[in-house]
Amino acid sequence: MIIPVTCAIILFEGKVLATQRSESMNLPGLWEFPGGKVESGESPEDCLHREIKEELNIKIDLWDRWDFSEHSYQPGKTIQLIPFLASYKAGELILSEHAAFRWLGLSELFEVNWAQADIPIVQELSRKWESIQKNY
Ligand SMILES: Nc1nc2c([nH]c(=O)n2[C@@H]2O[C@H](COP(=O)(O)OP(=O)(O)OP(=O)(O)O)[C@@H](O)[C@H]2O)c(=O)[nH]1
């Protein structure tokens, strides 16, 4: 089974938002880009706007869709993590599900313990960091 999950790489003032999964979620304590499972009949973009509003109470603009990262945390169940580059648009950030958040600069990207599926995406972000900061 492949489970499509969207996630947002949210940029603001030269930093990127990372959120920590709470005890009530899968993979508790690990860090991720916020987002969630795509519901049937929903586009990845609509899913991400919905999840970000639900989880963080903010609005974002989506810029670019990156290649997905696939990871199996358990046999027969693969997460297909679809990242979108995004920027913060409006609203006060209030966590409804996560335990914590951090705005990370380039040198801090690997300070948090990322979920496995996110690692290739964080590596790509690190490689593209300078050009992304120029363009967004
Ligand atoms: N949102 C999100 N989920 C991720 C990331 N990386 C990663 O491995 N996952 C995994 O993808 C799955 C997404 O589930 P979720 O719990 O965030 O999504 P959801 O709110 O729609 O699920 P639910 O309604 O079943 O609780 C989880 O198994 C989570 O551990 C990530 O960067 N963002």
Automatic annotation (TrEMBL):
Catalytic activity: 8-oxo-GTP + H2O = 8-oxo-GMP + diphosphate + H(+); 8-oxo-dGTP + H2O = 8-oxo-dGMP + diphosphate + H(+)
Presence of keyword Secreted: no
One Pfam family it belongs to: NUDIX
GO biological process terms on file: DNA repair; DNA replication
Cofactor entry: Mg(2+)
The entry's keywords: DNA damage, DNA repair, DNA replication, Hydrolase, Magnesium, Metal-binding, Mutator protein
EC id: 3.6.1.55
Keyword Metal-binding: yes
Coiled-coil segments on the chain, per record: none
Domain Nudix hydrolase: 1-128
InterPro entries attached to this UniProt entry: MutT-like, Nudix_hydrolase, NUDIX_hydrolase-like_dom_sf, NUDIX_hydrolase_CS, NUDIX_hydrolase_dom
GO molecular-function terms, A-Z: 8-oxo-7,8-dihydrodeoxyguanosine triphosphate pyrophosphatase activity; 8-oxo-7,8-dihydroguanosine triphosphate pyrophosphatase activity; 8-oxo-dGDP phosphatase activity; 8-oxo-GDP phosphatase activity; metal ion binding
Sequence similarity: Belongs to the Nudix hydrolase family.
Protein name: 8-oxo-dGTP diphosphatase
Source species: Algoriphagus ornithinivorans
